[in-house]
Fold:
Amino acid sequence: MLPLILRADATQIGLIGAGEALQRRGAVLAGAGADPIHLAPDARTEQIASLRVLFVAGLPEGESARLAAVARAAGVLVNVEDRPALCDFHVPAVVRRGDLLVSVSTSGRSPGLAKLVRQ
Structure:
């Protein structure tokens, strides 16, 4: 794993999904200062290709896998919530205190442990 801090306001971030998982991921992105482009699950390849990063949340595994493949083929980094095998990167647990940012990651293998450490 290579830890990076991404300026959310300096890149095109997309968000596709449904339900509570979509709401959670949207809240995480908003907390980081991102204003993601919301796309429908049937988004056109051109729409996905215009992004740099794509988050997928709350969709069935087959649909998530298809979107991840489309994103990768277009050179877009993809994160599919709760499906580490479909991810190019993982989102760590985060503690923010003003300008201080501390992240905790288990490389997607134990999100519960990362959450516990963050707390």
